[in-house]
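Q:
Just now I want nothing more than another pair of eyes on a protein record. Here is the record:
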Amino acid sequence: MPDKPKPTNPPHRGGAAMTGTMRAGDLVRLSRAASPQFVRPITVRVIRELTDRHTYHGWTWIEAYELGPDGSARAKRELFVLREGADLLASGPTSASSPTSQSGPTSQSGPTRPPTRRERARLGR
């Protein structure tokens, strides 16, 4: 009985591989497994997947913000990536997590920014 051929691709490391559609807010790590252009891996926050562009099977175009080490957006980019090679680090918000009641404004979670000069002037500070 002949031996099975060994896979030529290195094992997938990091987050979960992307198999479905990328959604707005998804945090994705792109390395050489996603495309040869990523000699140095980058982390992006997906704006949207460009599904109107026809590509090879398993490949997709995404519009995303490239993130710096501190998590802030550095550049808006359109990227051609192999879906299976993209590591999902964190999933974007789901519609089930959005508030459904109309009882009034809700507080936003997450980091807050300092007020701008205009806001400070309006508040009398």
Observations:
- Helices lie at 117-123.
- The radius of gyration is 20 Å.
- Strands lie at 16-17, 27-30, 42-49, 59-67, 73-82, 87-90.
